[in-house]
Here is the input.
Amino acid sequence: MEIEGKVAVVSGGASGIGRAAVLALVDRGARVVVADVDESGGRRTVDVAADKGGLAVFSRCDVTKTNDLAAAFTLAMAHFGRFDIAFNNAGIGGEDLFADDAGAWARIIDIDLTAVIDATRLAVREMKRSGNGGVIINTASLIGLGPMAAAPVYAAAKAGVVNFSRSLAYLSEESSIRVNTICPELVDTPMALGLGEEPLQELRKTGGILKPEDIAAGVLELIGDESLFGVVMKVTIEGGREIVLPS
Here is the structure.
C-alpha cells in the first residue's frame, strides 16, 4: 500500500511505539487519528506531528470501551474522509500475579487481548463499508511466541493476539484487508520503566533495548508490502526485522 494520502488510526499514540508510529506515518504523507486515554500525551503527539508538517487529530480513547474505539474510526472518516490503516498498539504490562490478584491480570487480558479483538472487529467493519480494503497491524510481543514464567498472563494475552491476527489471513482475499502482527523484543517505552532506572540506563548504553522508531519502521514495512498478510514480524536487537509464521 502506498502510504501517502492514506488515513490511519493509531491507538496508544500518546507515547512510545504509538507516538513513533504516528510520526513515521505523517513523515510518509499519511493523516492520523491519535487514539489514547492519555489526553495530554495524545495532544502532544498531534503537536509534534504538526511541527513536522503532518496532519493528525486526537481522539480520547479507552480501548476497553467499544464506543471509544468506534468513535476513533468514525473520526477518521469524518475528519479526513477515509480510513485505511489501523495500528492497534495500546497495551499494558505491570503486575502479572495471576494467583493473587484477579483484578490485575484481568486488566492485562482486557487491554492487551480483548481490546485488540474489538478494535480489529470495528476496523474490519469500517473497511468493508468503504470497499477499499486496508491494513490492520496488531502489537503483540516476542513473549507471545513462547512461554514466560514471570509473566504468564501477559504471555497468554500476546499469544492470543498472534493467533487471532493470523486467523484473519482470509480477509486479504475476501475483502482486501491485510491483518498482521508485530512482535517486538524489549522497547524503550514508559512500560520499560518497570525495570528500574539503573538497569534501563545500562541497556541504553549497551544497545540492549530497542527504540520505538525500530518498531515504527516495521509497521511501515507491514503496511507497504502488499504480499504480507497473516504474518508475524519479529523485531529484535540481534536479528532486526524478520517475518515469521506465514499464513
